[in-house]
Each structure stands twice: as C-alpha cells, then as structure tokens.
Amino acid sequence: MASPLPMGPGFVPHMPFSAGDNECEKYFDLFDFGAWERDQASTPKHSRKSSSSSKSSSSSPSSSSSGLSSKSKKRNLQHPEQTAEVRENGACIKCRIRRVRCDLRVCAQCKKFEYLCIHEQLSTIGPVFINIHDKAGERVRRDDLTGRSVHALVTFSETDASAPRMRLTIQAYDPEKGSRPNASNCAIPREHIPTWDSLVQWAGEQILFEDKTPFLKAVETFIMTYSGRGNEGSQLPKFGLVNRVRQLTCMFKIWMTQHSSSGHSNGIYYYRPPKNDTVRLPFAVHEELRHIAKKAMESLERDILSELDACMTQSKAVQPFEKPLLWVCLWQLLFVYRQLLGSNLPHAGSHRCREVTRRLYTALVAYYTGFFHTPKSLNLELDLSRTRMPQDLRHRMAVLFQNILDTRVGFYQVMQGSKNEFDTLISSTIVENELKKLLKRRSRKSKSSRSTKSSDSRDDYDDDDEEDY
Ligand SMILES: [Zn+2]
Ligand SMILES: [Zn+2]
Questions:
Q1: CA angle, 374 then 462 then 433, to 5°
Q2: What is the DSSP letter of 68?
Q3: How many angstroms separate the alpha carbon of residue 95 from the centre of ligand 2?
Q4: Where are the domains of the chain?
Q5: Which residues surround ligand 1, an ion (CB under 5 A)?
C-alpha cells in the first residue's frame, strides 16, 4: 500500500475538496476518480492482493522453465528460511530483485554504488504527485454556468494546425458577458468534463507528434502503441503496467503544460474555426484540465509503484517474457521523473518534494540495475508469440521494440556527455556499464561482417569477459 509522506511545513497533502462545500461536492461527484479508474483499468487494482495481475501467474507455465527465473527459483527453494529472513529484514531493492541475501546497510551487491542500496519499498519512498501542492483548478463554480457554450478544439500548439486536437466544451457563467470566454468568466460544464480516455488520447498523440531524442521517442512510441488500443490488449504481458505508465505519461504532459504567457509556445490553446485562429485557453479552463490530470497522476502513480513493488516479491516474480515490458516502463518512468526534477515548476520545487522525487528516481535506478545487470539483459527480446495479438501488430511491436534497442547507444552517449546531475546518476550506473558492452559488440560485429562471410552474428557475442555490476 502506498503510504504518503509524513507532513511538514510547505508539504501539504493534496486534498482537493473541503468538506461541506457544496460546489465542490458536486464537482467531486462528477470527478469520481475511483470510478474512472475502474473504467479505465483493464487489470485489477494494486490494493487487492488476491486479485491482482492474474496474467502473470496464469500465463504460460512453460516460460518459467527457462533462464534466470528458474535459476532464482531453485535458489529460493534451497534456502527458504534465508529468503524469508532477507525479506523480513528489509533487504535492499537490488537484493530483493536478485533474491540474494542482503547483509548490511550498504550490502555486497551495492558496493560499487552505495547510494543505490535502498531498503525501502518504492511506494514508501514515493508517491510524488499526491504530495505536490498544486491547487490549480480545484474550486470551480458550475451552478451558474448559464451563458453561451463554445465547442472548442484544444491543442498544445499555437501555430501548427496539424497538431492533435481534442474537442472541449467551454461555457460562460453569464449570458450577457458570455460572448468571449476569458480567464474568469467560463468553465467546463459538468456534463462535458473530458474523460480520462479522451485526455490520454489527445496528449498521447501530441507526445508522439513532438520531436525529441530518438531513444525517448522510440520508448514512447512503443508504450503508446502497446497499450493504446483499449482493452483489446488486456491479455498481453504486463499490459496493466504499460497502460498505466502510458496514462501517467499523458497526464503528466497535460499537467506540466503551464499557462504561461512568457515567450515560449508552451501552453494549451483552442482553435476558433470562424476566425481560423488559435488563442490561449482561458486560465480557469486550463487549470481545470491540469487538475484532472493531477488527480489521475496521483492514482496512477500509486498503482504503478505498488505494482513495481509486487514485482520484487516471489509470488509476482517477473517472467522472462515480461522483462522487456518492465524495462520499457522503467525507462519511461525515469523520463517522467527526470523531467519533473529538471523543471522549475513552483509547486514541484519545494525542497521536500524535490528530495522525495530525487529519492524515488534513485530508487528506480536501483530497481533497474536489480533486474537488468547481466550482459544477457542487453539482448532483450520481445516475445509476444503466446499472445493473441494479430500477427501484423505483433510484427509491428517487434519492430518498435527493436527500434528502442537500436537507438540506445546514441542516447547513452548523450547521457554520458550531460552535466545534469540526474543524467549523471543514470550515466554512471546504467549507461556506463551497458554502453561499454554495446560498443564492444558493435565493433566486433562490424569487424566480423567486414572480414568474413554473410553471417548475421546477432547472437554471436562472447560475453564471458564482461563483468556483472
Ligand atoms: Zn542488498
Ligand atoms: Zn544493497
């Protein structure tokens, strides 16, 4: 279970609706995030232990008979008391994942990077979003929305007409003054509050529309495609996790978009067909969208962290065919928190909140290195052969996944050159280790293809001189 942080000055839990406030109660009725979550969630909830992630336990027993997992299972069976002891004593993240004995506060597994020896659960370190003090869009009057309504097409881009748009209804409070929505005279009418789905859809399209680093783009494209087809994919491995990570990423995009008028084209706009122009979304409406996004993020983050914690337990152990999906999700989450840490948002900037975010980010790095530390984990292969995914789509997913792997080196090299402290953290732990091996392989590969026949030597690596970390 997620446990919020202890409170401190300037660190107010986000309780959006004060009791007894009529307007707010109505608002709350409408914003039944629990119901939304149930609607959206195609997989069971984090908090119900018995029901969660039936996929991973029920899916293909054949798969567990190979590779890492069987090795670790055997080890566990040999030392059941030891494993239990490790868990009780609060083994560090890496040891929990690797199922080895965790001895000291800075244990043998973490000697190289002591700060990665973290003994708490991810959900205990986080969550971050619920503790960010941002009351934007909380209190909205809706009863006196009696003026004209406008069906606006909202967009993240002021100038680019090809940017994705979402239909949004805005209504003025006063019929007299309702002709032009402005900062204070309008809101989203109750019956037109956008659904979680429509927001995710719109922001997701925008995310893919924007230019960015190829690796990041490849990760995002994979995540949006894998889980972006509604419940059709709910039987896929780690679908629930990927889907929540997708939704979190999309909501984060909306929440991070500020209503600033400072030079940047950052903002949310709406398109007015009669005039064929694009204007900034009225402040109040913009903040309502951000508020919806924040509430969604709070719930999604809680579920994601709980699920990641569960993956460290023996009963929910990650199967080999689930690993590539976990790997992609971790990168996407690292990107989200990295962006939050890199931002100068006033509400994310409180010292305490940054500390929590930084710790969670560090813990995610530890988590990553717990799972993906062997040379073998550089050869992740997406295996959807046991799923009912149509073959063309399966092929497409394989191509998208390969694209992530192929763009790694370029991204890792950029990270190595970065002076940013959060990039340095990834760089010294994950990147340095992986890049060394990837470059070695690359040079070997090019040598072998130059010198000898037409062999496709993808699996031809000789990794025995490569150390674990
Ligand atoms: Zn340990
Ligand atoms: Zn450790």
A1: 35
A2: H
A3: 6
A4: 22-45+123-443, 67-122
A5: 92, 95, 102, 107, 109
Q: Residue written as tokens 């990665």? A: 116
Tokens of 250: 């999309």
Six-digit token string for 361: 């980010």
**Could you say which ligand is closest to the alpha carbon of residue 100?**
1
Q: Which residues of 189-223 are buried (b: 16+ CB within 10 A; e: fewer)?
A: ebeebbebeebbbbbbbbbeeeeeeebbbbbbbbb
Q: Residue 127 in contact with residue 244, Cβ under 8 Å?
A: no
What does the pLDDT look like over 32-89, one tens digit per residue? 334 434 444 444 434 333 333 333 333 333 333 333 344 444 444 445 555 554 454 5
Do 236 and 185 meet the contact criterion of CB atoms below 8 Å apart? no
Helix-helix angle 239-256:196-209, to 10 degrees: 80
Residue numbers in the chain where pLDDT is lower than 70:
1-89, 177-179, 183, 261-265, 346-349, 451-469
| Residue recorded with tokens 């040079």 | 443
3-state SS of the chain: helix, strand, coil percent to 5? 55, 5, 40
Q: Are 234 and 196 in contact (CB under 8 A)?
A: no
Residue 369 CA: which ligand is closest?
Answer: 2
Ligand 2 geometric centre to CA of 30 (Å): 45
| DSSP-based three-state secondary structure for 206 | helix
Is 38 exposed, middle or buried, given 0-12, 13-18 or 19+ CB atoms closer than 10 A?
Answer: exposed
- Cα of 370 vs centre of ligand 1, distance in Å, is 10
Residue owning tokens 């005279």: 185
Alpha-carbon distance values, 13 to 17, 34, 131 (Å): 12, 18, 5
State both tokens at 282: 């009225």
C-alpha to C-alpha distance for 332 and 245, rounded to whole angstroms: 7
Block residue for tokens 């929540």 = 244
Return the CA Rg of the chain: 24
C-beta separation of 146 from 175 below 8 A: yes
Specify the 3-state DSSP secondary structure of 18: coil
- pTM of the full structure: 0.78
The DSSP-derived string for 31-99 is: T-HHHHHHHH-SS--TT-TTTTTHHHHHS-GGGGGSHHHHHHHHHHHH-HHHHHHHHHTT--HHHHHHT
Q: Which residues make beta-bridge pairs with 277?
A: 272
Phi and psi at residue 162, to the nearest 5°? -90, 0
